[in-house]
Protein: Surface antigen 4
Organism: Sarcocystis sp
Amino acid sequence: FDQTCQQEVDLETVTPGATCQRPAPGGMVAVTFPRLPPQNRKLCFVCARGQENCKVIIDVAADPAGGAAVGIT
């Protein structure tokens, strides 16, 4: 979803090269960012199972010419 968690968007269009693997080992979801975006991005990952759901906001730092960090809030 977009940063407001309202509109569904394709992960590849937001952060090129990013992938989402469902389910990853252990029943987890794995999101990978092989290349970081040129500007900071805030992503919203919405998970749902039956009546249960959750939202995870992911701050993806811009590529400062070689390295970066990813934080989950």
